[in-house]
Design goal:
Blueprint: H1 10-15, H2 17-20, H3 26-35, E1 37-41, H4 45-57, E2 61-65, H5 90-101, E3 106-110, H6 119-123, E4 128-131, H7 136-149, E5 153-159, E6 162-168, H8 176-179, H9 193-212, E7 221-226, E8 231-236, H10 247-250
Parallel strand pairs: 1-2, 1-4, 2-3, 4-5
Antiparallel strand pairs: 5-6, 6-7, 7-8
Helix pairs in contact: 4-5, 4-9
């Protein structure tokens, strides 16, 4: 039988040493990350934080999708970019930066708007889908795909100094539309950069836990951050029997 340790070279062992020495991680956990593919939907404030930490941790392939270009007003929170990137495609600039952070991994940059007709192609063979979007209409598209494809889906949202996160994996958990059946009205949301950073880090943490098989995931739980008072509240989530996305599939 082939020894899986040959999949990590000496440089990688050195790069990832501080996480590999954790109990129950080791080379086996790092190899799982190296073999993994993730899909990051959105390359803004949340996506920046998620992508940086997953790249640094050694996730082998990151598929990052966004249809936007870098604007000056992005720079208070979208830490993948600088003034030099203004006017460039976010995903292209992100891919260049992430490749500098970790040249050992593969970055697939997808300059497309997520729609029902292309979400399957965009997600590709990703084992997990990470919501770094800023609107619920697109989130619903991703959620429906995740339910139908049987993929885990981490939802996170931010508003000002508040945030929320949950781990969705139908049929084990409610889907996004169970929890939020009605989309809030579209608006330009206030966002403090640190809030996007905190919530993005939590998304990255959940992703690493899932891929390595460590810890307890946020299934059936919604964690709500009150950044003004620096408190976290945990809410229990239940499936909706009237959900048009998942109720008919798993009842």
């Amino acid at each position: 039988m082939q020894d899986n340790r040959i999949l990590l070279n000496d440089s990688e062992k050195n790069r990832y040493n501080r996480q590999m020495i954790m109990f129950d991680w080791g080379e086996e956990g790092q190899i799982k990350l190296k073999k993994a593919t993730v899909f990051i939907a959105g390359a803004g404030g949340l996506g920046s934080s998620v992508a940086i930490y997953l790249a640094s941790a050694g996730v082998g392939c990151i598929r990052i999708c966004d249809s936007g270009k870098v604007e000056l007003s992005n720079l208070n929170r979208q830490i993948l970019y600088t003034d030099d990137d203004i006017g460039k495609k976010k995903v292209l600039s992100a891919a260049q930066t992430l490749s500098k952070i970790n040249p050992n991994i593969k970055i697939v940059h997808l300059f497309e708007k997520i729609e029902k007709g292309n979400i399957s192609k965009l997600a590709g063979n990703a084992q997990i889908i990470i919501d770094c979007l800023d609107n619920f209409q697109t989130r619903y598209i991703v959620n429906e795909y995740a339910v139908n494809a049987g993929r885990p889906f981490i939802h996170t949202g931010v508003y000002g100094m508040a945030g929320q996160i949950t781990f969705i994996f139908s049929p084990e958990t409610p889907c996004l539309e169970c929890v939020f059946p009605d989309a809030p009205p579209p608006e330009i949301l206030p966002v403090v950069g640190t809030t996007a950073g905190i919530m993005g880090c939590l998304e990255a943490q959940e992703t690493l836990k899932y891929l390595t098989g460590r810890g307890t995931l946020l299934k059936n739980r919604l964690i709500v951050l009150d950044g003004d008072n620096l408190t976290f509240e945990e809410l229990h989530l239940e499936k909706s029997p009237s959900c048009k996305i998942c109720s008919s599939k798993f009842n």
